[in-house]
Task: inverse folding
């Protein structure tokens, strides 16, 4: 195969797969502006369904609950996940360490119905009523467990890349370990911490199965509400909601990416300057 | 031992305790409870089961009285396999789930491998943009992406694909695209593709191009180079990606529920129905235990490969 043909083949494949990934999302966005009642037909342009969204108290309170659970779960997951990443990268092998490694990543791949069922059994167990039963707190704990696995993987890879001589230098100069962690280690792994927080936040916002199994009547998260609505007939209001979510996620991801990239660039520049 | 190293040791102990305690409470203990409930008797109560650990009849101590009836039902289906007109609710769901997960994994690999490969070989400036574009749909709501397919595949004349086909004069009447196995498969491939692409990309981007040059300098054809250099080196990425797709796909609930209608039986739906509408928690737990047993080998393979992959990083 000649070089040019190869290049065009590559571009064609990339284009096709990206079309497959994006056309469904594009359709959601387009039909959110319909004036009609059907979710797949353009009966004139209007913002009618966005106004409907503004008046929909149910969706708003579900979204607010999801945002709160997401932020708290992401924060807890970064703490638990980073601690797990430390254990995995910095501790000498001990009895049970490979078991721990397996347990850390298992929630990532375990089918959600199984994790969900197991956590329902935990929270409804008569002997464990101090956990508070099903509800927002249970959803938070479930999301933290799932998200901590992702956070551990991300932070772990950053910890392995990191130059340990920085920490050793600080320790040799008499800096207490606790301070070394916050003054040296945290700034170095900060990009990983930020991306882990963002990823786990969206994971939590997005989760339906765990939230649905663990919710009680007072704790309906956004995906749980959307799922119920999808079973009660489709309305372009869901398209409007989807458009807003796509927009918000795109802005957040692009901003975060830009920030991470520029911090990486300035770090590289600093390193070059240091070596010259 | 100096005070400093003692402090260090104690600090390390507590840092280690946090994830250990969390995972023991919220991951391992729940699994023990699943085992326990799978051996229970369903009952109209809150929670709806009677656990096998009971106070002994004579009032002294406790005794362990497991109820095997949930497993017995699964076993009965197994022995009834091949009988004329046997109704194999769970067994067929297991078979269906495994089959659909296998096909999904294979399709994701066939679509995702060349895709990840070309992204990894792209110029560095566009590589990040392309990667961003893979991540973006992955970060937007999963439910809403499945919902998008409900509109695309709709079997009436307002379905988007049907509108297109009829508009182009390819078909006269709308095709029944939604609520069947094909729809579920499409939704699964669509939803799981990024899970395949990301580990593959992470692996392929580390591939040293000099190895490929060396192979071609030594006279290897592109196909030979691919089969004997690229493919073996990306083994860990393939395993990680395949497991990231296969394992959750086996237990998938949302996609068959929304795109499969009542037709497509899958094991995740059985667990959901037994847990929810049927209120048969012991059965749901037994089915879940069998699913985990089925997945334990793939999960161990995944853990091994991802651990290796993490340690290989410079």
Result:
């Amino acid at each position: 195969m000649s070089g040019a043909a190869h290049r065009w083949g590559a571009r064609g494949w990339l284009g096709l797969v990206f079309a497959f990934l994006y056309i469904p999302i594009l359709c959601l966005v387009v039909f959110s502006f319909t004036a009609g009642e059907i979710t797949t037909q353009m009966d004139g342009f209007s913002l009618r369904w966005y106004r409907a969204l503004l008046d929909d108290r149910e969706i708003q309170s579900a979204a607010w609950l999801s945002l709160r659970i997401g932020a708290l779960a992401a924060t807890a997951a970064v703490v638990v996940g980073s601690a797990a990443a430390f254990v995995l990268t910095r501790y000498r092998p001990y009895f049970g360490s490979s078991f721990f490694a397996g347990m850390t990543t298992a929630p990532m791949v375990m089918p959600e119905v199984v994790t969900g069922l197991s956590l329902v059994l935990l929270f409804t167990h008569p002997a464990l009523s101090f956990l508070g039963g099903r509800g927002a707190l249970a959803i938070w704990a479930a999301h933290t467990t799932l998200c901590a696995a992702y956070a551990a993987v991300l932070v772990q890879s950053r910890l392995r890349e990191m130059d340990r001589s920085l920490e050793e230098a600080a320790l040799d100069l008499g800096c207490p370990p606790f301070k070394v962690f916050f003054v040296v280690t945290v700034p170095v792994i900060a990009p990983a911490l930020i991306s882990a927080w963002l990823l786990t936040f969206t994971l939590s916002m997005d989760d339906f199965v765990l939230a649905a199994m663990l919710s009680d009547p007072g704790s309906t998260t956004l995906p749980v509400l959307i799922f119920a609505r999808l079973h009660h007939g489709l309305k372009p209001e869901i398209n409007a909601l989807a458009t807003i979510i796509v927009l918000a996620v795109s802005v957040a991801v692009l901003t975060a990416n830009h920030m991470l990239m520029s911090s990486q660039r300035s770090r590289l520049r600093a390193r070059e300057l240091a070596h010259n | 031992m100096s005070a400093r190293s003692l402090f260090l040791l104690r600090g390390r102990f507590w840092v280690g305790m946090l994830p250990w305690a969390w995972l023991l409470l919220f991951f391992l203990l729940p699994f023990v409870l699943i085992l326990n409930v799978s051996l229970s008797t369903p009952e109209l109560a809150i929670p709806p089961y009677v656990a096998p650990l009971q106070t002994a009849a004579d009032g002294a101590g406790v005794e362990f009285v497991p109820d095997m009836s949930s497993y017995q039902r699964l076993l009965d289906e197994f022995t009834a396999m091949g009988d004329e007109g046997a109704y194999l609710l769970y067994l067929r769901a297991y078979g269906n789930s495994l089959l659909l997960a296998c096909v999904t994994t294979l399709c994701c690999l066939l679509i995702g491998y060349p895709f990840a490969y070309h992204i990894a070989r792209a110029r560095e400036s566009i590589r990040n943009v392309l990667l961003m574009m893979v991540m973006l749909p992955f970060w937007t709501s999963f439910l809403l992406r499945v919902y998008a397919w409900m509109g695309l595949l709709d079997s009436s004349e307002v379905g988007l694909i049907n509108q297109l086909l009829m508009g182009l004069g390819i078909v006269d009447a709308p095709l029944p695209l939604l609520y069947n196995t094909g729809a579920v498969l499409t939704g699964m491939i669509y939803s799981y593709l990024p899970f395949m692409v990301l580990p593959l990309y992470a692996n392929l981007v580390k591939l040293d191009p000099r190895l490929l040059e060396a192979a071609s300098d030594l006279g290897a054809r592109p196909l030979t180079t691919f089969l004997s250099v690229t493919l073996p080196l990306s083994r860990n990425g393939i395993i990680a990606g395949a497991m990231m797709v296969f394992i959750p796909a086996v237990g998938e609930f949302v996609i068959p529920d929304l795109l499969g209608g009542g037709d497509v039986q899958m094991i995740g739906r059985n667990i959901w129905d037994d847990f929810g509408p049927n209120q048969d928690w012991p059965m749901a737990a037994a089915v879940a235990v069998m699913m985990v047993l089925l997945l334990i080998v793939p999960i161990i393979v995944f853990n091994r490969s991802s651990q290796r992959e993490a340690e290989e990083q410079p």
About this structure: The mean pLDDT of chain A is 88.
